[in-house]
Amino acid sequence: MTEQARRAQIVGAAIETVAELGYAATSFKQIATRAGLSSTGLISYHFKGKQELVDEVYAEVLRRYADFVMGFLDRSDTVAGELRAFLVANLRFMRAHRSHTVALMQVRPHVSVRGRDEDHRRMADLLREGQRSGEFREFDADTMAIFVLALRNGVLARAAEDEALDLDLCERELLTLVERATARAHQPPG
Amino acid sequence: MTEQARRAQIVGAAIETVAELGYAATSFKQIATRAGLSSTGLISYHFKGKQELVDEVYAEVLRRYADFVMGFLDRSDTVAGELRAFLVANLRFMRAHRSHTVALMQVRPHVSVRGRDEDHRRMADLLREGQRSGEFREFDADTMAIFVLALRNGVLARAAEDEALDLDLCERELLTLVERATARAHQPPG
Amino acid sequence: MTEQARRAQIVGAAIETVAELGYAATSFKQIATRAGLSSTGLISYHFKGKQELVDEVYAEVLRRYADFVMGFLDRSDTVAGELRAFLVANLRFMRAHRSHTVALMQVRPHVSVRGRDEDHRRMADLLREGQRSGEFREFDADTMAIFVLALRNGVLARAAEDEALDLDLCERELLTLVERATARAHQPPG
Amino acid sequence: MTEQARRAQIVGAAIETVAELGYAATSFKQIATRAGLSSTGLISYHFKGKQELVDEVYAEVLRRYADFVMGFLDRSDTVAGELRAFLVANLRFMRAHRSHTVALMQVRPHVSVRGRDEDHRRMADLLREGQRSGEFREFDADTMAIFVLALRNGVLARAAEDEALDLDLCERELLTLVERATARAHQPPG
DNA sequence: GATGAATGAGGCTTCATTCAT
DNA sequence: TATGAATGAAGCCTCATTCAT
Are residues A59 and A6 in the same domain? Predict the structure, then answer.
């Protein structure tokens, strides 16, 4: 088995484990079991330490997430449309890759990698672009980025806890909210 | 030293420790050291187990938080005002009791006590009241409650990570956002 | 409260505790609770150490046991009769003072006091007396003493485990057995 | 070193330790020291918990015991002969495997495995068979089984305490006693 | 004498990591 | 590479005992 394949397999098992048991209960033994490995030693062999594995898990989930979201963004030509697409994509990702999403939320606080702020920077840039284009009203883009991501995170966290949450409803309400929050003038429906 | 005082001291040390090192790195030994205790046995003597201490930490922070927020809510007579006061109070609490807030966010996922959803229920009720009174537009109150609390949590989380965050700016922007999100008709400024 | 009364109270609580929870689960805290004491310190104050308490428990149960058995022995004028009375007394003691008996069996292995062999010596002496008087056949009295006490202990142990054991049946069968084991010639019934 | 070998080694060390120090003083540290292990963690590595080790110790001793006793039972064709063989085997086992016997008596009260009563059931069955075959007199077989096993246990316990006990003498006397206790009619010697 | 908090040793267990094979 | 036993640190918890009040 190739090095890369092994790492991927281990990372995959780690994601499953974290999603299922939560970060605290995720030990090398659990991961090894789920990966069908006969020894935790193999994990240490392929990863310098637990931290590297955790970071890799985070990166892998983020990669999948980015791929998924990307597919939604391409189709819109306005900034507001892109923002809507981003939000929709996030909620759809939750449905399509529940365990990845759950793992993401569990693992995030334990990630060492700097670059967690990249999300924020990109969002702030997008918002600024919308302001330049005249679609968005005046607001502090960095602050609004915090808000938008907070909404995303909060909904995902809630969905992670409550499997019965109506994500369609959430999506509609969220789009309405964000539009009201950002639009230059409020558009009365119809 | 009286039992109650000791418990309070230990809870205090635990809060400090969690705020400083994060939940994962918070061991009885760390807490004992910070509290000036001679052994971890003393913690077990005063608390039935780690879970009881964790729950107590959560309860204590929540108590302080509730007291603090209460002081802000009394003065408003409209529901919208109460909602604003709630948000303001939360951000001010972060400033006044930073370590408590950080500890709260760290500890929340590990609390056993049921009643974590109470926050959500109360917020949803408040929002419904605003709808009945005509102050708020039509929206799904439960979903909007998720949004409002997500915003609150997201801002606090951000503030916990980034000590330099401008909370005044956040406050202003947040109030604006929430008003736009909930108001029956958008009020153009001025 | 007088010193002696306190000690007696603690010993009594210890007996209850051991009978109820078994030796391994008997801690000072359990004993203190059962005695209505508010501190385990009081136990350490009245007893030099756990060993002294254990020994005292053993001695106390033995004292009661001896008193009880004594009442049965007086009435017989033959050695065989005394032996029978001893056995009957033991089984009756089990019924009358179940928890004391159970405590006795639990505590015996942990007693430091030498004098556990006294039982054996007395039994051997009794048996020798029966041999001298011509009631008993020839056998090694020390070995037979082991047997008789083993039978006694085994029945008590069984009764301790199985509350439904028919002690009347046991008594009849035991007397028959011991008579056959010791009698000079087997007496056909009737 | 193979898993099975390590487990066997640990069980062996545990048997030694229990035989030497008694159950109460048998800690993982003691066992590890005696087994030449570098840490108690290794014991937990090979056994799920203390209970599993205790049960394994019990099972191992019982296995050896059963093997040993088996060799004695085959040769007899009468039930009385089988009963005698059983008793002889038990006493010989004590001599041949002293520490195992002592460990057995120490560990028995702490074993979780159900099947401790199997001994009793088998003995009662054997006795009933002897009654059906006409070798044994009328008695309650369950009660007599208690007696026979009590005698066995009592002698072993005594032998465990007193290394100087004359087991040959015990054997002869025990056989005589049991024969008198069970035989249809007392056979006068010679 | 009595209280109850404090002590500190010791117990079992989990875990990431190392290492010989 | 892979295995899986071994390591050793660290964690939580229990307990008898001590001590100031």
Answer: no
Integer Cα distance of D65 and D68 in angstroms: 5
Which strand E bases fall within 7 angstroms of a protein CB?
1-20
Q: What distance in Å separates the CA atoms of residue B169 and residue C37, rounded to the nearest whole number? A: 60
Together in a domain, B42 and B20:
yes
> What number is the average pLDDT over the span C27-41?
96
pLDDT (0 to 100) of residue B91: 97
* Chain C residues closer than 8 Å to D139 by CB: 173, 176
Contact B104, B23 (CB under 8 A): no
Total structural domains within chain D: 2
Average pLDDT over every residue of C56-61: 96
Nucleotides of F under 7 A from a protein CB: 1-20
Q: Are residues B131 and B156 in the same domain?
A: yes
Residue nearest to nucleotide F13 (CA to C1'): B44
What is the C-alpha separation between C25 and A98, in angstroms, rounded? 46
Residue B90 resides in a domain = yes
**Cβ < 7 Å from strand E, B residues 22-61:** 37-42, 45-46
A5 CA from E12 C1′ (Å): 38
pLDDT tens digit string along A128-153?
Answer: 999 999 999 999 999 999 999 999 99
Cβ-nearest to D154 among C149, C170, C177: C149
Q: How many CA atoms lie within 13 A of A61 on its CB side?
A: 30
Identify the domain containing residue D105 by its residue range. Answer: 58-182
Question: Is C190 among the domain residues?
Answer: no
Residues of chain A found within 8 Å of residue B170, distances taken between Cβ atoms: 143, 146
Mark yes or no for CB contact B147/A151 under 8 Å: yes
Residue D71 shares a structural domain with residue D161: yes
**Is D169 part of any domain?**
yes
Q: What is the mean pLDDT of residues B123-139?
A: 97
Our answer on whether D and C touch (3+ beta-carbon pairs < 8 Å) is yes
Which CATH number covers residue A72? Answer: 1.10.357.10
Contact across the interface for B139 and A173, Cβ inside 8 Å = yes
- The answer to whether residues C68 and C133 belong to one domain is yes
Best C144, C148, C151, C165 member to test D by mutation, with max D CBs in 10 Å, is C151
The answer to whether residue A187 sits within a structural domain is: no
Same domain? For D150 and D116 the reply is yes
Q: Is D22 left (phi over 0), alpha (psi -120 to 50) or beta?
A: left
Tell me the C-alpha to C-alpha distance, in Å, between residue B80 and each of A48, B84, B90, B135, C51.
53, 6, 16, 7, 71
Kindly report, residue by residue over D156-187, the tens digit of the pLDDT. Answer: 999 998 999 999 999 999 999 999 999 987 55
